[in-house]
Amino acid sequence: MRTGADVWEVFWRATARDGRPPLWDVPADLARLTEVLDGSLPVVDVGCGNGTQAVQLAAHFERVIGADASAAAIDLARRTHPHPNVTYVVLDALDTAAVARLHDRCGDANVHLRGVLHQVAPDLRPAFAAAVRRLLGERGTLHLVELAPTAEAYFAALTAGGPPPALSRVLSAGIRPGVLTAEDVMALLGPRYVAVAGGHDVLPTTHTLPGGGRASIPAFHLTARLARD
Ligand SMILES: C[S@@+](CC[C@H](N)C(=O)[O-])C[C@H]1O[C@@H](n2cnc3c(N)ncnc32)[C@H](O)[C@@H]1O
């Protein structure tokens, strides 16, 4: 994995060992996903982690590819979230040749990207965006949810008295949250792409706040595809 040491491998091995779900292990927003993604195309869930969202997508899409750079994540996904419509593959989205082979195998695809791009080092994001474009081809649609700049203040407040256990596991693996904007993503995709939907969102978590309710990290969603004449 070239995304900043092997922090994700460390994290997913620890998660597989202790069995507790990751901080972001919540249901997919299927109402939105089924509305914006072309149901006739496969979906590649890039950075699928333990497969929670990929397996939910499989209830609506005939072919889902759950792809993650971490072999431990893919092993966990295969064991805990099997589904006849899902194929899990170890794939570093920064591996251009492997991404091209996946596109050759499955053709143009929708890309689901939740909480992944903010984890990619800024200098590697253009290469990551090129991989997304390759998977989309001419016909695919990208749906993405990423942490918004206001997430920084939210994390600061959340960790003020010490991080909640699920966040502690993330931090102790060496993972640090990053932030992005929809404009950043559109700039990475390039001028041939249009945003067809987007807006404020939250990334819900598994952590229950002292006053009740789940911690929900400020985020944004974006749906984009190639401009059509
Ligand atoms: C915060 S987790 C999100 C997991 C999943 N998308 C979800 O929402 O439940 C980020 C995931 O991205 C994966 N990842 C990071 N860099 C990657 C890369 N270059 N290629 C593929 N996966 C990557 C990590 O291994 C991790 O599983």
Give the name of the CATH superfamily: Vaccinia Virus protein VP39
Ranges with pLDDT <50 over ≥5 residues? none
Largest sheet: 7 strands, mixed
CATH topology: Rossmann fold
Q: What is the residue-mean pLDDT, rounded to a whole number? A: 95
Number of domains: 1
N-to-C series of helices and strands? HHEHEHEHEHEHHHEE
Strands, count: 7
- Within the largest sheet, what's the order of strands? 3-2-1-4-5-7-6
**N-end to C-end Cα span:** 38 Å
Structural category is alpha/beta
**Residues in helices, as a percent range:** 25-40%
Q: What is the name of the CATH class?
A: Alpha Beta
Q: Assign an overall shape.
A: globular
Number of helices: 9
CATH architecture: 3-Layer(aba) Sandwich
Architecture overview:
With 229 residues, the protein is α/β, with parallel strands linked by helices. It has one domain: Vaccinia Virus protein VP39 (Rossmann fold, 3-Layer(aba) Sandwich), CATH 3.40.50. Helix content is 36%, strand content 24%. The chain has helices at 7-18, 30-36, 52-57, 71-80, 96-106, 125-136, 151-158, 165-172, 182-189; strands at 43-46, 64-68, 86-90, 110-114, 141-147, 193-208, 214-226. It has a seven-stranded mixed sheet with strand order 3-2-1-4-5-7-6, with helices on both faces. Helix 1 (7-18) runs parallel beside helix 4 (71-80) and helix 5 packs parallel to helix 6 (125-136). It is globular. The termini are far apart. The model has no long low-confidence stretch (mean pLDDT 95). The structure holds S-adenosylmethionine. S-adenosylmethionine is lined by residues 3, 8, 24, 46-49, 52-53, 68-70, 73, 92-94, 114-116, 119-120.
